Amino acid sequence: xxxxxxxxxxxxxxxxxxxxxxxxxxxxxxxxxxxxxxxxxxxxxxxxxxxxxxxxxxxxxxxxxxxxxxxxxxxxxxxxxxxxxxxxxxxxxxxxxxxxxxxxxxxxxxxxxxx
Length: 115
Hints:
By secondary structure, the chain is an all-alpha fold. It has helices at residues 2-19, 21-24, 28-62, 65-71, 75-87, 95-114.
């Protein structure tokens, strides 16, 4: 993907500048050019981030609400939700109360083991 290549180029250029900053900062003409390059790199980086954001927004808009919610779940919560959904297809979003109870039981069990 072109934006990833541009982003990697910006990162590599920054690393090079940091590595060579003592030599580069001795020359006033180089310092002036570096400031204009910095502005160019910031614009490039902003463009890359904007393109990624637009792409992510398009992908999220194609997803159903359920897919978006599942995307934000932790792996254990996702497994629990999918199992709960098969058992309770009429109200799958009621899983959260059951999931909280499961976590509380696990926490209490863990506390007993530690004490």
